[in-house]
Design goal:
Chain lengths: 329, 486
């Protein structure tokens, strides 16, 4: 498979997963905020989110002060934010367009439809039916994954798609847990706002119902951490993603003896083992936030290694393409 | 109920469908009979379905110079164009003869240059062209073929006579519309095809792939064939994807390929480098290889020409074809046919004035208001002056251009193109109106020369417009070649 094609598959997985998490997070928090009294509490939640995703600076440049409405516009429809929902789906669609010949026509039509449905959306649509718009994005992301899984051959390209998706997914779930209310294992949420934050963390990973099946409806911070970090059967736990990542990297590497490839196998294997055999004691003795920072650091390293191992194999840089050759019908 | 046809008004000039008001030509009778039963509501629905189908599938092209890089669908007109068998045979023979002569011209030009030495074509005309690749003189491509894929643009005048308007011998596009238009038509009007005797168009990709494999360096079994695209920003990108998928070959961009020190071409894959044997390139000469042509090109592959000359990779089309579809060299094609084949041209040229020629130039400058002036190096309807509809200021602009650089311009009398009924939006309902059309059959050269059955019929959808290019508001129609004459 062409390196460029592999990289496009990888980024389709990543961009769509990122859009899905964003839509879910914003939807959950928007509804939660309607019941939160102070502007200050609202601003705190959004500021934390923008910090986590590394977008605070870009946001402040455009909108200034952190407030619910401009933040929502920034993360959903804003043309100047590369990580807004519209831009993420446009990016996925552009990647897909560049490898149209490698996709099933169902996948291409679906992504193209998705893109067309978002392209026309305005602030009016966002505010007249916020829930509808966000649910549309989230559900379409779910469906897209289904279309990919059921119409594409599960060969190299599909594996790169799953790799991108899982790297994004693991990272996003890890970021969801990194909130103060979860960082002390002895506390139980008493204030209503703490309770809400726990709920929001679970719902943002679409994990609330699954959590309840295992631990009843009682929201206990250390159980939430355990569930989202270590659960072996919940598909959005960090551990579930790292296990997937390690398997996929091994599959893609095959019998390659190249140094970068071997290194990628080693790191993804180590990461998977850390989470498979990790324990809450270990997490809390390190501190939740530092522990998660280490995990995220390893995700970053792994992304770089994967790029070196598969996307830049011949050491050539890929120039961005802005040149056009005029050619007409 | 009144049918669309009852309100159709014929205009002066040649009407493809009707002999006289209300009387369809023989090969259109069946179609008109069938379509009488459709109300304009039915047709409106069908048309909306067609537009949806094109947009959803991403069958779009990009408009250059538009900062938004807007993707548009190529407008599609539901009313098919029909060519009876006897007429098609003449077209086929005429085009085959023409492409044959043009290929011999290229072989000669990059070889002994007999035609120049015999003063049939002026040497000065060739050597002053930017499309003449001097460095490649002395190199003959494998199997002596330059023109593997071409598209020849035909128009019909007020009497219905076919003329060649333009030869496209570099990277002609549009064949994907031929195939997609037919597919959409069959989906929308399945019953219409039942007893119409329409010949199929879908063998094109198979034939193209077979021809490409034929170009593989000697002794290669199961050669690796790829399609080289300039990328997603190219207006014909959809077509590149479409053809790759249809042929089941890998589509690559310049940055995916590399020429190693062994002068062989490789693609960069996740498993390392893999050798490429044949390239169907949709990248122009100028961008193909920064070692030889434009140094700043990032669309091409450094060293590609080296690999080609070493015989390590097959290229379609050959390099340097632009000299033969230059709009000034076009004037000499009838002479080429006589010179190389000792035959009379079956399809005529539109009379052309070469501004590089003093007598012609004088005539052109005196008649700017009644001629079509074209820049020889431009294509796609860019860089043209349509005399009769131009302003004084535009004429003055072209006068200056011609006086500064006469070699770069030609002029032709305005040909009143034939028109064909098209379905357009009326004030309340859909209406049927005449619009000008042309025809671009596609020609493939392998072990033998074959033509797409029919080709792309382009329509100037703006009322009165004679320019059919997609970039200038043109659209297209499904084109039916019949097994018989009715």
């Amino acid at each position: 498979m062409l390196s460029r094609t592999a990289e496009s598959f990888f980024w389709i997985g990543r961009s769509v997963e990122r859009a899905e998490y964003t839509a879910r997070f914003v939807n959950v928090h928007f509804h939660l905020l309607t019941e939160i009294a102070t502007q200050e509490d609202q601003a705190n939640i959004w500021t934390r989110y923008l910090e986590d995703t590394g977008e605070l600076e870009a946001y402040t440049k455009i909108f200034g002060e952190v407030q619910t409405r401009p933040v929502m516009e920034f993360v959903t429809l804003c043309r100047d934010n590369p990580n807004s929902l519209t831009n993420l789906i446009a990016a996925a669609r552009n990647s897909a367009r560049g490898i149209q010949d490698q996709l099933s026509s169902e996948v291409w039509h679906f992504i193209n439809d998705f893109y067309l449905s978002l392209k026309e959306k305005t602030e009016f649509d966002l505010w007249s039916d916020t829930h509808h718009l966000l649910r549309h994005v989230r559900n379409t992301c779910y469906t897209l994954d289904g279309v990919v899984g059921s119409t594409m051959v599960h060969d190299e390209g599909w594996n790169f798609y799953r790799l991108g998706l899982n790297i994004e997914r693991g990272g996003r779930t890890a970021r969801l847990i990194d909130i103060p209310v979860l960082s002390d294992p002895t506390t139980e949420p008493r204030r209503i706002s703490e309770y809400h934050q726990c709920l929001a963390a679970l719902k943002s990973a679409s994990a609330f119902e699954a959590y309840r099946k295992f631990f009843s409806a009682q929201l206990v911070p250390k159980r939430i951490v355990q569930f989202l970090l270590f659960h072996d059967k919940f598909p959005r736990s960090v551990r579930f993603s790292t296990t997937q990542i390690s398997k996929i990297v091994e599959r893609l590497a095959g019998s390659s003896r190249r140094a970068e490839t071997r290194q990628a196998i080693r790191l993804s294997g180590a990461l998977a083992a850390d989470l498979e055999f990790g324990s809450l004691e270990e997490v809390y003795s390190t501190g939740l936030s530092p522990f998660l920072a280490q995990v995220l650091e390893q995700f970053d390293q792994l992304s770089n290694l994967i790029a070196l191992a598969f996307f830049r194999t011949s050491g050539y840089s890929t120039p961005s393409q802005s040149q056009t050759q005029t050619q007409t019908v | 109920m009144k049918s669309l046809f009852d309100r159709y008004q014929m205009k002066s000039g040649f009407d493809e469908m009707f002999e006289s008001s209300g009387v369809p030509r023989r090969h259109y009778r069946r179609l008109v009979e069938r379509l009488r039963n459709f109300s304009s509501k039915d047709l409106e629905l069908k048309r909306r379905q067609a537009d949806q189908a094109f947009l959803r599938q991403g069958i779009t092209f990009t408009v250059y110079g538009d900062l938004q890089q807007t993707e548009k669908i190529f407008p599609f007109d539901l009313m098919p164009r029909i060519i009876p068998d006897s007429e098609w045979r003449v077209i086929e023979e005429g085009i085959r003869q023409r492409v044959m002569a043009l290929n011999m011209f290229l072989v000669d030009l990059y070889g002994d240059q007999r035609i120049l030495n015999d003063h049939v074509v002026p040497r000065e005309l060739i050597e002053s062209s930017v499309h003449f690749q001097k460095d490649l003189v002395g190199f003959c491509p494998p199997k002596e073929v330059f023109i593997h894929v071409s598209g020849i643009d035909l128009v019909r005048n007020h009497e219905g006579l076919y003329y060649v308007l333009e030869d496209n011998l570099r990277t002609p596009s549009g064949v994907s519309y031929v195939l997609e238009n037919r597919l959409v038509m069959k989906q929308l009007f399945p019953n219409l095809f039942a007893d119409m005797q329409v010949r199929p168009v879908d063998q094109y990709p198979t034939q193209l792939l077979e021809n490409l494999k034929w170009l593989a360096p000697l002794g290669k079994e199961n050669p690796t064939v790829v399609l080289l695209t300039p990328g997603v920003f190219n207006s014909a990108y959809f077509e590149h994807c479409f053809l790759s998928l249809q042929m089941g070959i890998q589509m690559v961009e310049g940055r995916d390929l590399v020429v190693e020190s062994d002068d062989k071409v490789y693609m960069k894959t996740t498993q390392g480098l893999q050798q490429v044997d044949v390239i169907y390139r949709r990248v122009d000469d100028a961008f193909l290889d920064p070692e030889v042509f434009r140094k700043d090109s990032v669309l091409g592959v450094p060293g590609l020409v080296r690999a080609y000359r070493a015989g390590n990779v097959g290229l379609a089309n050959g390099i340097g074809n632009g000299i033969a579809d230059d709009k000034a060299v076009y004037t000499f094609v009838p002479k080429m046919i006589d010179y190389y084949l000792s035959e009379k041209p079956i399809l005529q040229n539109v009379p052309t004035y070469l501004c590089g020629n003093p007598d012609d130039r004088k005539y052109v400058l005196e008649h700017l208001g009644s001629l079509v002036v074209k820049a020889v190096a431009e294509s796609g309807g860019y860089g043209m002056l349509m005399g009769p509809s131009s302003t004084k200021a535009e004429q003055e602009e072209f006068r200056k251009k011609i006086e500064t650089d006469p070699r770069s311009y030609i002029a032709q009398p305005v040909v009143t193109l034939s028109h064909h009924p098209c379905i357009v939006d009326g004030e309340e309902n859909m209406r049927l109106v005449g619009r000008h059309i042309d025809l671009r059959p596609f020609v493939l050269w392998g072990e033998e020369i074959s033509l797409s059955l029919g080709g792309l019929t382009r329509v100037a959808l703006k009322e009165g417009s004679l320019v059919v290019n997609s970039s200038q508001g043109g659209g297209s129609k499904d084109t039916w070649v019949l097994y018989g004459d009715e």
